[in-house]
Design brief:
426 residues, alpha+beta, Rossmann fold, Dna Ligase, domain 1, D-amino Acid Aminotransferase, Chain A, domain 1, nine-stranded mixed sheet, five-stranded parallel sheet, 13 helices, 30% helix, globular, binds adenosine monophosphate, binds glycine
Length: 426
């Protein structure tokens, strides 16, 4: 099998590494990839945005499976494009089509889907510029804090959580009337606030059946103690110590199975990964959001713990042969810690020389590029050190040791990944 992965992050590196071990480096390609993906696959020089190049490369290299790493590629309609073209329609695009991708790209679509399927989620209503006054009344009927979500993709910035009613009303007007988040906020979902701890569960589906992958918890804020600005993710841990048998059973019964059945019932062209962003309230799981691709940095711990063949799961999905089950997982903990460029997620410098002594295979690259023999920073999140351990602390110690051995000017990382989970470890 020959596979092309679209993307350039540590998520794509983790997927490429796993696949290359299974089907051989010569059969795995990443477009555009980064300074690390070239060690386990071949980088090819285009992005998902250039559909014609994706097509030409699939023909030239006899690609059988295309994996879009990001929601942007799915929302741009890469699967729809491939399926509509007689020359590449048989390439198995392992993702939903654009319409089904609204499970992530439209909060209102996702909420409606969940309401129809009876999937537990925060109570909500959607508003547009025409109904902004009703939105103000709805806000006044709720207790603070107020949760306002731009409907569309807003690169993780479209959610506001506010304590003051007047501020919430003003922000609602600014989103709907003044297009605070552009077209993404022409519809706004207002939700009941749920107070609990968040984590994520992943499944792989062919649209009929699913295989549950290992779960993970990520750390989104730049500062220790979950403070400061949101980032693309500063670290992750798998397994999640509070995801016990009872919570797992409820999650499968109340969230995963109704979602997979709902995809079919609502005739969505869905296959690929499903990312359930969950919050646990009184030991019950509620869906905060769906993503239609793997998470980053969660993939950097989920895929290393997957103790079965990912390529075989994809082949089974292609042949409609998945059966509902939980994937075999390595019982060890996997943790990942991200080294980021100083200043990120605000302005930061690029092109800093990176030195790595003794990289482990699971040092996943994100914002790196090779220029001649030099490895340089090329993005905010630079390298994710994934390590294993019999305990979470052992894995974290190894991740930190690896991160500390890397140098580049301005390197920053959070030192408290996993600390909030200690209390759940028996
Ligand atoms: P989302 O983009 O929907 O995942 O929201 C971003 C973040 O906002 C989530 O990871 C939560 O931390 C928070 N959040 C979203 N919806 C709610 C809610 N209904 N109650 C509490 N926190 C929420
Ligand atoms: N870690 C969250 C995401 O991938 O969206």
């Amino acid at each position: 099998m020959r596979i092309l992965i679209l993307g350039s992050g540590a998520r794509e590196h983790a997927i490429a590494l796993k696949l290359s071990k299974e089907i051989g480096k010569e059969n795995v390609f990443v477009a555009p990839g980064n300074g690390g993906t070239q060690n386990c696959s071949s980088n090819v020089d285009f992005t998902f945005k250039d559909f014609d190049k994706v097509k030409a490369f699939c023909l030239q290299e006899q690609i059988e499976v295309l994996i879009p790493g990001s929601e942007e590629a799915i929302d741009a309609g890469i699967r729809d494009f491939m399926e509509a073209d007689s020359e590449v329609k048989d390439v198995f695009v392992f993702s939903p089509d654009k319409h089904a991708g609204q499970l992530e790209s439209s909060k209102a679509f996702a909420k409606e889907f969940m309401a129809k399927e009876g999937i537990p989620t925060a109570a909500y209503q959607s508003f547009t510029a025409e109904t902004v006054e009703e939105g103000h009344l709805f806000l006044a009927s709720l207790k603070p804090p107020y949760v306002l979500k731009a409907d569309g993709l807003a690169a993780g910035k479209g959610v506001l959580i506010l304590n003051d009613l007047q501020e919430a009303k003003d922000e609602l007007s600014s989103m709907l009337v003044d297009a605070k988040f552009g077209a993404a906020s022409s519809t706004v979902v207002i939700e009941e606030f749920l107070d609990g701890i968040e984590f994520s569960v992943f499944a792989l589906t062919d649209g009929d059946n699913y295989v549950l992958l290992p779960e993970a918890k990520d750390y989104k804020r730049i500062g220790e103690g979950d403070t400061g600005l949101n980032t693309g993710g500063m670290g992750a841990v798998s397994p999640v110590p509070f995801f016990d048998d009872e919570l797992k059973l409820k999650t499968i019964r109340d969230v995963v199975e109704p979602t997979i059945k709902g995809l079919k019932k609502q005739k969505l062209n869905y296959r690929g990964f499903v990312f359930f962003g969950l919050i646990v309230v009184n030991n019950d799981p509620f869906v905060i959001e769906y993503n239609v691709r793997m998470g980053d940095p969660e993939t950097e711990v989920v895929i290393p713990r997957l103790a079965e063949s990912l390529s075989q799961l994809i082949i089974d999905a292609k042949n409609g042969q998945l059966t509902n089950r939980i994937a075999a997982a390595n019982p060890a903990f996997a943790t990942t810690v991200f080294a980021v460029s100083g200043g990120y997620p605000e302005d930061y410098d690029k092109d800093k020389v990176i030195t790595i002594n003794d990289a482990s295979e699971t040092l996943f690259h994100a914002g790196t590029k090779m220029v001649g023999d030099a490895l340089l920073t090329s993005g905010g999140r630079v390298l994710a050190a994934t390590c294993y351990g019999a305990t979470m602390r052992e894995a974290l110690n190894a991740s930190y040791e690896e991160i500390e051995s890397i140098t580049f000017e301005g390197k920053y990382y959070r030192k408290d990944i996993g600390n909030d989970l200690e209390k759940f470890i028996k």
